[in-house]
Design brief:
Farnesyl Diphosphate Synthase; metal ion binding; Polyprenyl_synt; Isoprenoid_synthase_dom_sf; magnesium
Length: 339
């Protein structure tokens, strides 16, 4: 992850803490995803070794640290949510027939669909083994039960979200309400489980509702900005072609708003390019410029900021300290980022 911001000390601290926790979680996962037949674990580790921000493990660790816990006791639980995250990515890529993820060929392109399905299944199962390896959960039967319930619930919601995504991809229409249902299931659910795990590991169950409120709103804001960048982001910064979501025909709130806000000629252009797969650069550039002039970008960021405000309201009820400051910095970064 690149540097975030400039002179704000808290954001600089965020970068360092993200890198530190990512390094610790990566080391744990590297040791945990080993065994025979080696082909299974090579396939399971393929996307993980390709990188990633590790935001969800970060959320687990910092929520636990807010209550004075030793992060080594919760590191396996942090890895568990990353295993779940990557399990869903492996299977999503098969369903969507995607060839690349994080700049590397997808698991099914390298290892074939049968091995990719098995790799995803193994990652799912390993998440529960990692929970069993977490010292903070091993020592408390009630906490462990709650943790298993949290991860299981999140996985079910993720599957429901992927099903909804599949159904909506074939639907003739798509509304803002559809979008929010989808985002809460596919993005917020695992952020919510991450926050819950940190609180559960600390046995501070009275904070669970506020943990959920923080994480759900941050997850919505994260996806709003992600979808905005997929539409008008600078490819030199995002690493994705400009207007990529238009070519792929993705149904996102920025695109729904663009269809409503653009003048007739540009709106018809968007409809003609949406899902075309190979739209020419000149048409895409013209469309992106029209969208930028329409005010859609400011509107989406304002909606994302409103979710972050709600997120921070929930966070304010937690104990003051470095961990809370870092979670606040993460929420602020989520809405301000340009990559």
């Amino acid at each position: 992850m690149g540097e975030v911001g400039g002179g704000d000390l808290r954001l600089v601290d965020l970068n360092g803490e993200l890198r530190r926790i990512a390094s610790s979680v990566n080391s744990y996962m590297d040791g945990f995803l080993r065994g025979e037949p080696s082909l299974l674990y090579e396939a399971a580790y393929h996307l993980i070794k390709g990188g990633g921000k590790r935001l969800r493990p970060f959320v687990v660790v910092e929520f636990y640290r807010m209550f004075g816990g030793d992060e080594r006791d919760v590191l396996p639980a942090a890895a568990a949510v990353e295993f779940i995250h990557n399990f869903t990515l492996v299977h999503d890529d098969i369903m969507d027939r995607d060839d690349f993820r994080r700049g590397v060929p997808t698991v099914h392109k390298v290892y074939g669909e049968p091995m990719a399905i098995l790799a995803g299944d193994a990652l799912f199962a390993k998440s529960y083994m990692a929970l069993l390896d977490s010292g903070a959960l091993r020592r408390n039967d009630d906490a462990f039960r709650r943790a298993v319930e949290s991860v299981t619930r999140a996985t079910v919601v993720l599957c429901e979200g992927q099903t909804l995504d599949y159904q909506l991809s074939k639907a003739p229409s798509f509304s803002a309400d559809d979008y929010y249902r989808l985002v809460r299931a596919k993005t917020s659910a695992l952020f919510v489980a991450s926050a819950e795990l940190g609180v559960i590991a600390a046995s501070r169950y009275e904070y669970l509702e506020d943990a959920r409120g923080f994480a759900e709103n941050m997850g919505v804001a994260f996806q709003l900005v992600d979808d905005l960048l997929g539409l008008v982001g600078d490819p030199a910064v995002t690493g994705k072609p400009v207007g990529n979501d238009v070519r792929e025909g993705k149904k996102t709130l920025p695109i729904v708003l663009a269809l409503e806000r653009l003048p007739r000629e540009e709106s018809e252009l968007l409809r003609s390019l949406w899902g075309s797969g190979s739209a020419d650069e000149a048409s895409i550039s013209r469309l992106v410029e029209a969208i930028k002039r329409s005010g859609v970008e400011d509107e989406v960021r304002a909606v994302a900021e409103s979710h972050i405000s709600r997120s921070l309201e929930h966070l304010s009820r937690f104990p003051d300290g470095e961990a809370r400051d870092l979670l606040r910095a993460l929420a602020e970064f989520v809405v301000a980022r340009n990559y």
